[in-house]
Design goal:
heterodimer; A: about 220 residues; alpha/beta; 7-stranded mixed sheet; 9 helices; B: about 120 residues; mainly beta; 6-stranded antiparallel sheet; 3-stranded antiparallel sheet; 2 helices; about 10% helix; globular; DUF1806 (chain B); YojF_sf (chain B); YojF family protein (chain B); Bacillithiol biosynthesis deacetylase BshB2 (chain A); BshB2 (chain A)
């Protein structure tokens, strides 16, 4: 079976923070990657420092940043779902799942990556993970693609156990950095801080560019 | 966006009194607030494209600024506003930013709906 990765996340930059290493490794191996991004991060709070965005220009800026990040990671197929930031948990979950299901039918992914429901911290993260799982539960268990979930709550290991996928991403660390830098409006301050910490040798910072961890969804 | 010039904001507010306008009003701590600091509650509210008519509007304070809009049967107000722009579509965009550029509050007025 031909491999195909489908990433479903709500905000431009979620993919760069969480999945850039996996995407870059898969692309290096020639595996096509489809990324379905729910919103344009319209409600983001980072407006650039010094300011270069406002509430109305931010979505346009973040759309471009998303496209640039996808270029950096060599994502082969970017889908923008056109929902609004901060509203996903209030959408009709059946309709949300229908849209994901139609992409699943079309690209026939062998691997899906999304947020672990209830472990996403941001309500949009949880809503997206829930919609993906909702769509997958409509399929017979044996036909479901492998499902990797990002979990970022503090109690994740207490609830879910240790992560079952620990991916060494060191060989694509530079790609991850480029993807993060593409989201300039959201990451500029962070990257500045990161580079300072890196110079000081703070070990937590390097971890970002060394490993990515995922949990298989526990059906 | 640039630091608020109260007279320019007041002129815009006066020009749009007693007319149908659309507002966007928002305050936010960011969705990760409680995740980063357990002693702090995450609080966000926003309302967008409410059709609206005010009879009186004022910008007050010495920076950060406050804006109050008096309606026939109520009030709308925002505090903590630091920056503004009147964009090419003649929309008034007011925002309050933390020193690091993060948005904390927004109040916007337009004669046509904002994109949904």
């Amino acid at each position: 079976m031909n491999e195909h990765v489908l990433v479903v996340l709500p905000h431009p930059d979620d993919e760069s923070f969480g999945v850039a290493g996996l995407i870059a490794l898969k692309r290096k191996a020639g595996v096509p990657v489809t990324y379905a991004c729910g919103t344009l991060g319209e409600m983001g709070r980072n407006m650039g420092s010094p300011l270069f965005a406002n509430r109305e220009t931010l979505p346009l800026i973040r759309k471009r940043e998303l496209q640039d990040a996808c270029k950096a990671m060599d994502v082969t197929d970017l889908r923008m779902l056109g929902m609004r930031d901060k509203t996903l948990e209030f959408e009709d979950i059946d309709l949300f799942a229908d849209r994901i299901e139609s992409i699943i039918q079309e690209v026939k992914p062998t691997l899906i990556v999304t947020f672990y429901p209830d472990h996403g911290v941001h309500p949009d993260h949880d809503a997206t993970g829930r919609a993906v799982i909702h769509a997958l539960k409509r399929m017979p268990a044996e036909e479901r693609p492998e499902t990797y979930c990002l979990a970022i709550t503090k109690n994740r290991e207490n609830v879910l156990g240790a992560p079952d996928i620990i991916l060494d991403i060191r060989e694509v660390a530079e790609t991850k950095m480029e993807a993060l830098k593409a989201h300039r409006s959201q990451t500029e301050g962070l990257i500045r801080q990161m580079e300072e910490n890196f110079k000081k040798g703070v070990p937590q910072v390097m971890n970002w560019f060394e490993t990515e961890t995922y949990w298989h969804y526990q059906w | 966006m640039k630091p608020i010039i109260p007279s320019e904001v007041q002129t815009y507010l006066d020009q749009h009194a007693n007319k149908d306008v659309y507002i966007h009003l928002e305050t936010t701590t960011g969705a990760y607030n409680a995740h980063q600091n357990e002693n702090s509650m995450t609080v966000v509210a926003f309302i967008r494209n409410v059709k609206f008519r005010y009879s009186l509007a004022k910008i007050t304070g010495f920076g950060p600024f406050r804006v109050g809009l008096k309606m026939e049967e109520g009030w709308t107000y925002a505090e903590g506003l630091t920056d503004f722009t009147i964009d090419e579509q003649n929309r008034l965009i007011l925002a309050g930013h933390h020193p690091d550029g993060k948005l904390a509050i927004a109040l916007q007025i337009s004669t046509v709906p904002f994109p949904s």
